[in-house]
Amino acid sequence: MNVYSAIKQLVQRAILLNLIQQEDEIYAVNQIMSLIGLTDIREEQVGYELSEIPNILDELVLYAVREGVIEDLFEEKEIVSSKIMNVFLSKPSEVNKAFYERYLEKPEKATEYFYNLSRNSNYIQTKRISKNSSYKTLTPYGELDITINLSKPEKDPKEIAREKERKKVSSQYPVCLLCAENEGYTGRIGHPARSNHRMIRLELKDEPWYLQYSPYMYYNEHCIVLSHFHRDMVINKEAFERLFEFVEKFPHYFIGSNADLPIVGGSILTHDHYQGGNYEFAMARAEDENTFTLDTFPSIHASTIKWPMSVIRLRSFNKQELIEACDRILEKWIGYTDTSIGILAYTGEIRHNTITPIVRIRNKEYEVDLVLRNNRTNEEHPLGIFHPHQDVHHIKKENIGLIEVMGLAVLPARLKVELREVEKYLLGEPNKIEPYHIPWGEEIRISYNKEITSTSVEEIVRNEVGNTFLRVLEDAGVFKRDEQGQAAFWKFISSLNT
Ligand SMILES: [Zn+2]
């Protein structure tokens, strides 16, 4: 593909996808030319096959590097690529207008429009996401989702060194990755390019909020709902109110929040935000285990569910009662101590208990899952008592946040290669198995024995990754799934009515 046909192709694609109109063609071509340092263009070549947008973008960026318009650095390439796509995008006010016109017809139409826009504008990194290795694996708790995250581009060491040499601009703008000021922000070394970023304005509890999709989405229509204000994450009554208000506005989406304490929270605690989407996780499919009633909330159907972590599920048509009940459970949990199973509410002044909440509408009824969390550490478990333990760190040692809680394991890229070596090890072939996988490999060998063949080994390892993830979730559960743990869970539930 030469650069001239690449530009033409990209503009044709944009017209086909309705990002721009035919009348915009000449203008768009000229804008792109200027971004990659072209002042002259040859006659259009005929008969080419349209390539996908990310591939055409790669061509154009490559040209800009070759011509010395930009340096061969990841961030600089991202900036140009994002600016090129911005040529096809309307201003935020126009995007919002188009969104809300469709919303009046049906909320699904509005999210469908914005989701497609975010994909077509390459804001959602579809090409990189497609590199992820994802599958489902059956466990006693239903089908869990496993994703080995390969979408984050790996930089070669030379590039990292060169970026280090270049002075990092020390900047407080935008303050963080989730701040509203990212909308249309060019980007710089150390901060992603966001020229092609657009956000939908929302009001939640009389405050300005925004809706966007995740550029590295892990499930269908993975969206992020973020506050206009750069302020800490907090789980409180207002947070519950906002979650319910959101599903009222978008009944086809679930929404959840990461917990608000380190270890049990997500990676960004400093900007108030939630995550939602159009996807049914294994946890949503988990069945009731034990049901109970809550005094003063007669409309609410309350239960624990069959899930490796400790979850209280509440269902009702009465939103206000649900918000009050969530708040009561949160308050009780924050102050709850049961030393017999290692749950301490505080160490001195430091609080340990919090909740990961998820809200959805099912058959027109509100449903909320409250996942009880505790972030205490001790000498035996310095990374967290209710956190993946040492023996499963070879698969996962990162925080167990909202997405994992619901049953989707996001696993580190290193596993792609490492698991292949585990397979060779199990087959008795020459291998480079990492020493930390050997005890696990031995367990697999013992339990599967002769079943391990060159045709079955991949499936066996996949299943065992699923079982290990299950163990990860059990480790994160505050009330264990044994008799003692479940009795303690029931004791807590009884305390809700006192
Ligand atoms: Zn922020």
Largest sheet data: 10 strands, antiparallel
Which ligands does the model contain, each kind named once? zinc ion
Estimate the helix proportion, in percent. Answer: 25-40%
**Rounded to an integer, what's the Rg over CA atoms?**
25 Å
Straight-line N-to-C gap? 72 Å
- How would you describe the shape? globular
Mean pLDDT across all amino acids? 94
Strand order of the largest sheet: 3-4-5-7-6-13-14-10-9-8
Unreliable runs: none
Query: How many helix segments?
Result: 16
Count of extended strands: 15
Structural class: alpha+beta
Strand content: 15-25%
Q: Mind explaining what this structure looks like?
A:
This protein is α+β, with helices and mostly antiparallel strands and 498 residues long. The chain has a domain at 3-88. 38% of the residues lie in helices and 17% in strands. The protein has 16 helices and 15 strands. The strands form three sheets. It has a ten-stranded antiparallel sheet. Strands 1-2-15 form a three-stranded mixed sheet. It has a two-stranded antiparallel sheet with strand order 11-12. α1 runs antiparallel to α3. The chain is globular, with a radius of gyration of 25 Å. The mean pLDDT is 94. Residues 175-176, 178-179, 230, 271 line the site of zinc ion. Zinc ion (ZN) binds next to loops.
Concise overview:
The chain has about 500 residues and is an alpha+beta fold. It is built from 16 helices and 15 strands.
SSE layout:
Elements (H helix, E strand, L loop, with lengths): L2 H14 L8 H11 L17 H14 L7 H13 L5 H14 L1 H14 L5 H4 L3 E7 L2 E7 L8 H9 L34 E5 L2 E7 L9 E5 L9 H13 L4 E3 L16 E5 L4 H4 L2 E5 L8 E5 L5 E6 L2 H16 L11 E2 L2 E2 L1 E10 L2 E10 L27 H4 L2 E4 L2 H14 L10 H11 L8 H20 L6 H13 L3
Parallel strand pairs: 2-15
Antiparallel strand pairs: 1-2, 3-4, 4-5, 5-7, 6-7, 6-13, 8-9, 9-10, 10-14, 11-12, 13-14
Helix pairs in contact: 1-2, 1-3, 3-4, 5-6, 9-11
